[in-house]
Design a protein that fits this description.
Elements lengths: L35 H14 L8 E4 L7 H7 L5 E4 L3 H12 L1 H7 L2 E3 L13 E6 L8 H14 E13 L16 E2 L1 H10 L3 E4 L8 E6 L15 H10 L1
Parallel strand pairs: 1-2, 1-4, 2-3, 4-5, 5-6
Antiparallel strand pairs: 5-8, 7-8
Length: about 240
């Protein structure tokens, strides 16, 4: 459990701007290479605007090549980043190309090269979890599994932010669908959340293709998302007053 990357050298390098999503390259495999920086900023800014601080513990579901982890790992305190990714080579290439082995030694992130949280027997005591473009490739069986497992590892004040593709009809297949995409009704996502003891709310946060949503435990502070757009100004004002 929580195995260390082998770090024998990256399989792939470069920005891969001429490649397509899903191609065999650490940046392309996780989505459009031209959006790599945009997605990093989008997720990091969302988390910080809804309350993320350095002392919080964060789970990055499908952390891939550390597209978001390259910002979260240096920001968070030691041992506060947990990345789950079944494709170990993506994590290794992300470390080699984006953050370097020295930062891993300093910050001591936890990596699990599995497709679930089953190997974590003790609670992770998570403040936040993020699943960017995971539910958009998952059948309802996997969405339900992730929500159930994440819920069991979140603190009572914790929350998951995740994206999905919204539609008027639900995908009726099962398992992992990649690089293809699947769509769900917001009502279906809300029902799946409720089964795991989570509330559901669509967030007003821009995404180039998908919809952001909050899946929160009962005691999560929703004050930063209750009125109007999510903004840094609102969070900063509260943080400086505390």
């Amino acid at each position: 459990m929580s195995r260390k990357p082998t770090m024998d050298g990256p399989r792939t390098t470069g920005l891969a701007l001429d490649l397509s999503p899903g191609d065999d390259h650490y940046r392309a495999y996780v989505g459009p290479p031209r959006d790599y920086d945009l997605v990093s900023a989008m997720v990091f800014n969302l988390l910080t605007c809804i309350g993320l601080r350095q002392h919080h513990r964060v789970l990055d579901i499908g952390c891939g090549s550390l597209r978001v982890g390259r910002l979260l790992i240096p920001y968070l305190n030691q041992e506060n980043y947990v990345g789950v990714e079944p494709n170990q080579w993506l994590v290794e290439d992300g470390i080699a190309n984006e953050i370097g082995a020295d930062l891993v030694k300093i910050k001591k992130p936890t990596f699990s090269f599995q497709a679930s949280l089953a190997e974590f027997e003790s609670p992770l005591d998570l403040d936040y979890a993020v699943a960017q473009s995971i539910f958009s490739h998952s059948g309802q069986d996997l969405v339900g599994q992730w929500l159930s497992q994440v819920s069991s590892h979140l603190k009572e004040e914790g929350a998951l932010v995740a994206t999905f593709l919204s539609d008027r009809q639900d995908f009726d297949g099962h398992g992992w669908i990649y690089p293809g995409c699947v769509k769900y009704r917001p009502e279906t996502m809300a029902d799946l959340a409720a089964r795991s003891g989570l509330t559901f709310r669509v967030l007003d946060w821009a995404h180039p293709r998908q919809t952001w949503a909050l899946f929160a435990k009962k005691d999560h502070d929703r004050s930063l998302i209750e009125s109007g757009e999510i903004t840094w100004n609102r969070f900063a004002a509260r943080a400086m007053d505390s």
